[in-house]
Known about the structure:
Elements: H1 3-32, H2 42-52, E1 59-63, E2 70-72, E3 77-81, H3 90-107, H4 111-142, H5 146-186, H6 195-230
Parallel strand pairs: 1-3
Antiparallel strand pairs: 2-3
Amino acid sequence: MTYYGSMIILIPAIIFTMYAQAKVNSNFRRYSKVRNVRNMTGAEAARIMLDAGGLRNVQIEQTRGSLTDHYDPRKRVLRLSQSVYSVNSIAAVSVACHEAGHALQHAEKYKPLTIRNSIVPVVSFASNLTWPLIVLGIILLSNGSYMGDILFNIGVITMLAVILFHTITLPVEFNASSRALKQMDELGIITEEENTGANKVLKAAAMTYVAALATAIANLLRILAIRGNRN
């Protein structure tokens, strides 16, 4: 299979990724313009959810950028972006409570999160090596060197580690969203009518993680197809 032929394998994943990202942006923009009934900011919503879960020691900080929200398990800090922290929209409280869901997972030692956090350093290192190893392996294979086969196989293993990371990420993100929706309802952060908007924002965000996994798998299949053709 030629390089251009192998790209056909990747095209569906690329289209899906573009669709997922567009869906996230459109839903976030749409519900960022809709003020929640309680006039609550993202930071206030996250604080209520954290306190209800007994996590008064988890601090909330503002961080730069848009949709750069995350929970830092090492420092036990919830960082909310400028478009979420002090904004009183449905989108803002939804994203903030999703990140608070990760803090609750950490406190409860939620198994998928524990596994994901433990392999982050390894996967980060492996992902930086994947493509250099695969490209160098293919070049050496073209010259008939047995080292090419070894390097290529190591590259495939590192790519499998990345796929494993994306696979474990799915239940972590889906669980954080389901926690957020449940807690926002039970704690009165949003009304029943606002639940639809919150659900759309969080479901669209979850699609991006599915797209990341699909792209990683498509890349692996593409590389294996190229390798098979060279054999």
